[in-house]
Structures are given as structure tokens and as C-alpha cells.
């Protein structure tokens, strides 16, 4: 029995194997991608809502004469949009589509 050591599932060996398995499971669970390819991202959904408000207000201003309070509201909506969407400006179109699908659920 002095040849090659036999493999055994002692606690020491089990811990070595469990760490990579747990890390992979955590990465897979945290990816956020659903089976249909959508990604659940509440911050992105907020970005879309704020952008929609800005777009509707802008369209409304095209139909009428703007005043000083409209200018303040426009500035506030733009700031809200910039704050809500700042982490998505460099995102690819495909990635945005996946996140947008998650907002429709």
C-alpha cells in the first residue's frame, strides 16, 4: 500500500471541491438573466420611466408655448434622467433590450 494514495472524501478534500462549486453557483444565480433572455433590473426600469416622462413633456412643449416654469420642469426632468440612467449610457443595444424585456414583466 505504499504506491499511490487513494482518493477519499474527507472534510479537507470536500472543502477544496465545494468552494469552486459554490462560487460558480453564486455567479450563475447573480447574473439576473431569466430563461427568456430578459434581465430583471429595477434601476433600468426607473430609467425608462423617467425618460418617458421627459419625452412626453418635451412632446407637449412642441404643441404649445413654453414658459419659465416649463423650463424649470424640463431641467429637473433632465437631471432626474441623467441621475437614473448614468450607468446605462455606455451599454450596448442588445443588453438594453434584455433589460427592457425584464421591465415589461
Distance between the termini: 62 Å
**Radius of gyration from the alpha-carbon trace, in angstroms:** 25 Å
Shape: elongated
Strand portion, in percent? under 5%
Largest sheet: none
Counting helices, strands and paired strands, the structural category is mainly alpha
How many strand units? 0
> What's the overall average pLDDT, rounded?
79
- Contiguous helical run count: 4
Low-confidence stretches: 26-30
Fraction of residues in H or I helices: 55-70%
Order of helices and strands: HHHH
What does this structure look like?
Helices cover 68% and strands 0% of the residues. The protein is elongated, with a radius of gyration of 25 Å. By secondary structure, the protein is mainly alpha-helical. The protein has a domain of 65 residues. It is built from 4 helices and no strands.
Furnish the topology, listing elements before pairings.
Layout: H1 11-30, H2 42-63, H3 68-85, H4 93-103
Helix pairs in contact: 2-3, 2-4
Fill in the keyword field for this structure.
105 residues, mainly alpha
What is the compact description of this entry?
This protein is an all-alpha fold. The protein has helices spanning 11-30, 42-63, 68-85, 93-103.
Amino acid at each position: 500500500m505504499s504506491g499511490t494514495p487513494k482518493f477519499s472524501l474527507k472534510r479537507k478534500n470536500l472543502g477544496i471541491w465545494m468552494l469552486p462549486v459554490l462560487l460558480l453557483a453564486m455567479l450563475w444565480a447573480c447574473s439576473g438573466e431569466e430563461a427568456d433572455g430578459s434581465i430583471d433590473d429595477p434601476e433600468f426600469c426607473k430609467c425608462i420611466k423617467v425618460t418617458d416622462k421627459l419625452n412626453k413633456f418635451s412632446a407637449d412643449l412642441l404643441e404649445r408655448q413654453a414658459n419659465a416654469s416649463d423650463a424649470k420642469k424640463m431641467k429637473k426632468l433632465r437631471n432626474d434622467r441623467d441621475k437614473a440612467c448614468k450607468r446605462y449610457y455606455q451599454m450596448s443595444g442588445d443588453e438594453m433590450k434584455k433589460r427592457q424585456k425584464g421591465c415589461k414583466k
